[in-house]
């Protein structure tokens, strides 16, 4: 089976699963056709994975995640499509569908010449291995500190191990990239000033990612090694921002629209704590739309959030790991200072900025870490200047000193948040793209015919999509278009037991790949014990005299 046909099957199953879930949550709204301004069908696949991830978390409280759970989820949610039959539209050969389908058939080619991310072998695959072989473990992060992050994306990916082939783990990533480009194509075809402005900014951002110092890279989304989800988080983050900008000033918002804000807010937080930033625009929406929000909405939001934080607490002893003040020292599977130690390690590794540092000295220190840090930041600033200039050229905006101050403050705040938390370009994708949209809400009209801007955006959309993939991937596809993909872990991995009784890599590598009890050589000794109801608890072993 060819790569594209494999992805198409995966996409269709996920699409109709998401549509079934949409039928369920929209059953009282007469099957609303739009989410804010956007076609509902582009959201279906992401809806599926959001719900699959959350149900996997709940399921893992009691059972290990397995193929039977995954099959049951897909069958039951696809069956929900029966809640709403819809006549098949035979007019499928049109330009809108062409733009919709283009990324579905093109983005999967990224699989050529793709491998695992470093973190796949470090902790992602092994954490998923635990999810697939055990119900939730108390204090699992004591075995490997990185298990404390326990992102929902690992819970999603734990459903897609097909024997020893990890191809579907890449498919979950590119499904979000396909969604992102489909969202932009929808913005173009809506052909309103604000949506055209959003599309223009994001497409210029993507196009300029191919040019600049060191060959480009400015903080746009990218194809990542298998198990990485930085681009996924960036897409979820910017999707919330796009929906928020589109909703501002819109008088006919309804409960379903607000539900989607809730879905992407919670999902962003479950992916990465930085998603908490989205609470600021979300609270604004709740205040100004309180008349349409029912009590059940808050109950569901609180319930899903509570499950997430309880999962974190059981796994690491912290509500959010590795934030020490949110950890509970009275839990016997948490050792005081454990999260602080990981936080310090991450900050040191990424060279995060501290307010007591001279910012110029910090920049030189941070730039020395690798060859792309400073070039990416310079490319990003140049991109923002170009985007703002083109927006001002194409559109008429409300301009005032107050608006100028707001945009400047917004840009400084977004960059500063990134510098203080996780100053690596891949962690700033959502924040960087958000800064490109800060002018959009002040658009009042276009300076040219909207169809001219629309056609320019269509051309830019095609160029950005084509340039998005590496040339080597395209060449590899042309050379072997029928290649049968099997992505497996390295087969030359040897393990041994050290003097402390720990299972480690024989070559002292910190990448354990898929061996549950293997740990890096720097991990602390632990004790594993069975507790009530056949649950397991992992504690850091006490030092013996």
Question: Could you please describe the fold and organization of this structure?
Answer:
This protein has a domain at 495-540. 54% of the residues lie in helices and 5% in strands. The protein is built from 19 helices and 8 strands. It has helices spanning 3-25, 44-60, 67-79, 95-106, 118-133, 152-157, 167-190, 193-208, 230-247, 255-271, 279-288, 295-316, 338-350, 359-367, 373-394, 401-421, 429-435, 450-468, 471-479, and strands spanning 34-35, 38-39, 395-397, 443-446, 495-497, 503-505, 526-530, 536-540. Strands 1-2 form a two-stranded antiparallel ribbon. Strands 3-4 form a two-stranded antiparallel ribbon. Strands 5-6 form a two-stranded antiparallel ribbon. Helix 9 (230-247) runs parallel beside helix 17 (429-435). The longest helix has 24 residues, at 167-190. It is globular and about 75 Å long. The mean pLDDT is 93.
C-alpha end-to-end distance: 61 Å
| Helix/sheet category | mainly alpha
Record the strand order, biggest sheet.
Answer: 1-2
Low-confidence stretches: none
Q: What kind of oligomer do you see?
A: single chain
Tertiary shape: globular
Q: Could you give a short account of the major beta sheet?
A: 2 strands, antiparallel
**Taking all residues together, what is the mean pLDDT?**
93
Question: Roughly how much helix do the residues carry, as a percent range?
Answer: 40-55%
Radius of gyration: 24 Å
Number of strands: 8
SSE order in H/E notation? HEEHHHHHHHHHHHHHHEHHEHHEEEE
Number of separate helices: 19
């Amino acid at each position: 089976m060819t790569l594209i046909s494999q992805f198409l099957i995966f996409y269709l199953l996920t699409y109709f699963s998401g549509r079934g879930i949409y039928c369920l949550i929209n059953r009282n709204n007469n099957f609303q056709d739009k989410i804010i301004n956007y076609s509902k069908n582009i959201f279906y696949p992401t809806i599926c994975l959001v719900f699959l991830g959350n149900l996997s978390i709940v399921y893992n409280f009691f059972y290990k995640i397995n193929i039977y759970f995954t099959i049951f989820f897909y069958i039951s949610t696809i069956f929900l499509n029966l809640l709403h039959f819809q006549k098949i539209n035979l007019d499928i050969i049109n330009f809108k569908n062409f733009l919709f389908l283009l990324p579905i058939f093109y983005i999967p080619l990224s699989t050529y010449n793709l491998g695992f991310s470093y973190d796949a072998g470090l902790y992602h695959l092994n954490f998923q291995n635990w999810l697939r072989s055990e119900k939730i473990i108390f204090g699992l992060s004591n075995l490997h500190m990185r298990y404390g992050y326990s992102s929902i994306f690992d819970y999603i990916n734990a459903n897609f191990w097909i024997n020893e082939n990890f191809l579907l783990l890449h498919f979950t990533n590119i499904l979000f990239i396909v969604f992102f480009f489909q969202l932009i194509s929808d913005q173009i075809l809506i052909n309103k000033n604000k949506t055209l402005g959003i599309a223009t900014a994001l497409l210029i951002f993507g196009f300029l990612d191919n040019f600049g110092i060191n060959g480009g890279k400015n903080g746009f989304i990218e194809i990542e090694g298998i198990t990485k989800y930085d681009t996924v988080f960036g897409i979820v983050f910017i999707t919330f921002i796009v929906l928020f900008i589109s909703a501002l000033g819109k008088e006919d918002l309804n409960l379903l629209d607000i539900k989607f804000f809730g879905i992407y807010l919670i999902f962003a937080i479950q992916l990465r704590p930085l998603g908490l930033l989205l609470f600021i625009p979300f609270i604004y929406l709740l205040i100004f739309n309180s008349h349409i929000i029912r009590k059940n909405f808050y109950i569901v939001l609180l319930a899903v959030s509570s499950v997430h934080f309880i999962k974190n607490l059981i796994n690491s002893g912290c509500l959010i790991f590795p934030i020490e003040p949110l950890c509970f020292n009275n839990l016997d599977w948490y050792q005081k200072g454990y999260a602080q130690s990981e936080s310090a390690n991450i900050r040191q590794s990424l060279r995060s900025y501290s307010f007591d540092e001279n910012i110029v000295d910090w920049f030189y220190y941070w730039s020395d870490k690798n060859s792309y840090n400073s070039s990416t930041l310079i490319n990003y600033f140049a991109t923002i200047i170009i985007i703002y200039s083109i927006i001002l050229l194409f559109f008429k905006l409300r301009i005032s000193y107050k608006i100028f101050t707001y945009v400047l403050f917004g840009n400084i705040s977004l960059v500063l948040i990134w510098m203080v938390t996780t100053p690596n370009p891949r962690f700033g994708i959502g924040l960087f793209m958000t800064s490109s949209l800060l002018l959009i809400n002040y658009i009042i009209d276009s300076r040219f015919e909207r169809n001219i801007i629309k056609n320019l955006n269509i051309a830019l959309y095609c160029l950005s999509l084509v340039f998005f993939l590496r040339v080597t991937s395209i060449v590899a596809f042309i050379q072997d278009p029928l290649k049968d993909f099997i992505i497996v872990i390295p087969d030359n991995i040897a393990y041994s037991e050290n003097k402390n009784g720990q299972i480690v890599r024989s070559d002292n590598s910190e990448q354990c790949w898929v061996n549950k009890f293997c740990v890096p050589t720097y991990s602390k000794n632990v004790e594993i014990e069975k507790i009530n109801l056949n649950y397991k608890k992992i504690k850091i072993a006490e030092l013996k005299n």
